[in-house]
Amino acid sequence: MITCLRSVFGKSTRFYTAGIPLKYKNRIGFDVAALRDSEKIIEASSNNKFTTITLVSDDLPDRKPYTVAFNNLFLRDSSRSPKSVDPTTGQKLITTGQLSRNPLSTTPSNVRVTPGGKFISIEWEDGDSYDYPSEFIYKYKGSSFVTESMRVKSPSSKTMFWDKRILDNHMDEVIGTDYQAYMSDDNHLHQLLETLSKFGIAFINGVPQGAHNAIQDIAKRIGPIRNTFYGETFDIKGASNETPDIGYSNVTLPLHMDLLYLDNVPGYQLLHTISNPKEGSGGVSKFVDGFKAISEVRQLDAASYQALQEVPINYHYSMGDKRYYSSKPVVEHHEVKQGATLGNYYDDLIKAVNYSPPFQAPFTFGIYAKSPESDTWKSKVAERHMFNSFTNGLEIFEDRINDGGNQFEIKLPPNSCVIFNNRRILHARSAFYNDSRWIKGCYMDKDTIISRLNYLNEKFL
């Protein structure tokens, strides 16, 4: 039943708020685990350029109707019909450029809201048709609601900046995962990944004694291990005078992140403690939330925080036949803000912190001062001023991470595994004096962790 006919710019198309029942089909690949009752499409209309859709949602203030006008190319390009994507893989069979060149591909011939308002069904002049779920319309209704990588996120896994006091209050979450439950129950795996997303660090306890390859099982329970020039896994055993890395020695290891001399830095690190004698042997670990520390720099000195985003620090690794070199600022932002409210705007912008003094190379920015014998300094005035702000910001940052109130200190217990975000959490270790200390580790990419969390969110949320 046609309830309205609206004329807009260009060609007008009928739209329906009720009509012939449609089968809920062609929903490949939108990551909608089940239709929710919170979103409902009220009406829709279309011309040869735009499609206008009005919906209500429990997530919108006072459930007031919200209207959004989508570019038709966006909608046609998003079609998941068997004509547009492979039914088995959900991967596209047509390019955006092909659609853009063909006016029939982006001109709706019919637009219909299905009974109940759970789908908007669009038939296109090129013969394609697709039922767009209300969740899809809501998800893309405005840039302030477009979250990082369009992830499916649980409210309980929202990033929480922490210091020692805050982490102490959440210690059950951080250290409460049992190995057997983690390995056998997806719900426990999901809870651990949510903890990682929230705090950047989580522990698994009760790893079987003597299971020297357990690190591989723990990692592969999530996804592939990131292989580096250290191998798929690496061993830090006892004290050695000849090491490929300061982390393999027994000397004090300052707060840092790993492998910043790579362009593609591993997102997470796993460390399985096989042996770590307690009495008078040192080897105490420290962890610090780099996101909290850098956010405090912004609160104290905005100009210095800006400089920490722009001044590059050079990192290198040069041993044997390895020659790695990469430059990174102390703080990196997402290209689009991740939060929808002003209060968490800056916090949600933070993508990564980069800090690894042991592998720092000489600066190449802001290093020239005024010289009576050269005009070099004249073209570098702005760099020098920014470098001054940078060093001031770096001092504040180091004050914050070295404040004991911001540090979580622990002697890693045997038969445990810690997983932490290598782009957020700084780690350190005191010197140790026992040759039986044995830590086995590996790295994982951030994408792997996020993929598994998103899948389990669909399963459990």
What do you see in this structure?
Keywords: Dioxygenase, Iron, Metal-binding, Oxidoreductase. Its cofactor is Fe(2+). Residues 178-443 form the TauD/TfdA-like domain. Strands 8-9-19-12-21-10 form a six-stranded mixed sheet. It has a four-stranded mixed sheet with strand order 1-5-6-7. Strand 2 and strand 3 form a beta hairpin. It has helices spanning 72-77, 96-101, 134-139, 164-169, 171-175, 179-184, 186-199, 214-220, 290-300, 302-310, 345-349, 381-401, 446-460, and strands at residues 15-16, 39-46, 50-57, 66-71, 108-113, 119-124, 129-133, 177-178, 201-205, 234-237, 253-256, 268-275, 285-289, 313-319, 322-328, 331-333, 350-353, 407-410, 416-421, 425-429, 438-444. Helix 7 packs across helix 13 (446-460), helix 9 (290-300) crosses helix 10 (302-310) and helix 9 (290-300) packs across helix 12 (381-401). It has 461 residues and is of the alpha+beta class. 25% of the residues lie in helices and 24% in strands. It has two domains: 39-150, NE0471 N-terminal domain-like (2-Layer Sandwich); 157-460, Clavaminate synthase-like (Double-stranded beta-helix). It has 13 helices and 21 strands. The longest helix is centred in the last third of the chain and has 21 residues, at 381-401. 35% of the residues are buried. Residues 1-29, 143-152 and 338-343 have low confidence and may be disordered.
